Amino acid sequence: MGYRKVIVKQTAADNIAAIAWFIESKGLLATADKFTDDAYDYFIRMGDTRKSYPVCREPVRAAIGYKCIPYKKKYTIVFIESATELIICEFISSKLIYW
Fold first, then answer.
1. pLDDT confidence band for 81 (50 / 70 / 90)
2. Is 20 helix (H, G, I), strand (E, B) or coil?
3. How far apart are CA 70 and CA 78, in angstroms?
4. pLDDT band at 3 (very low <50, low <70, confident <90, very high)
């Protein structure tokens, strides 16, 4: 079983940190840490070469060649997939995607 190299862009990392900070501001420190760890673990699992992902349904992101998958029904991971790498470009709320 092979894995692709997973690269997380700064914008995606900043969005994850902002969500974790919001959770922390509510007094849920352990939950914020768990959210961050789970998100990055999910990125690593996405690197499995046996899986391929669909192109985004949103026309603008699809035209660029981005692929999208939901994360915990509330967020969307937008990324570029190749045979050797997976580049995570955006980690956004699913409500922000309009099509």
1. very high
2. helix
3. 9
4. confident
φ and ψ at residue 50, rounded to 5 degrees? -75, -15
Packing angle, helices 10-25 and 29-46, rounded to 10: 150
3-state SS string for 34-66: HHHHHHHHHHHHHCECCCCCCECCCHHHHHHCC
pLDDT at 95: 79
The β-bridge partners of 7 are 87
| C-alpha 70, offset from chain centre | 8
Q: Model-level pTM?
A: 0.88
The SS3 call for residue 95 is: helix
Task: Name the phi and psi angles at 28, rounded to 5.
Answer: -110, 70
Q: pLDDT tens, 31-55?
A: 999 999 999 999 999 999 888 899 9
Q: Looking at the DSSP assignment, which residues form a beta bridge with residue 92?
A: 76
Cα–Cα distance, 43 to 45 (Å, whole number): 5
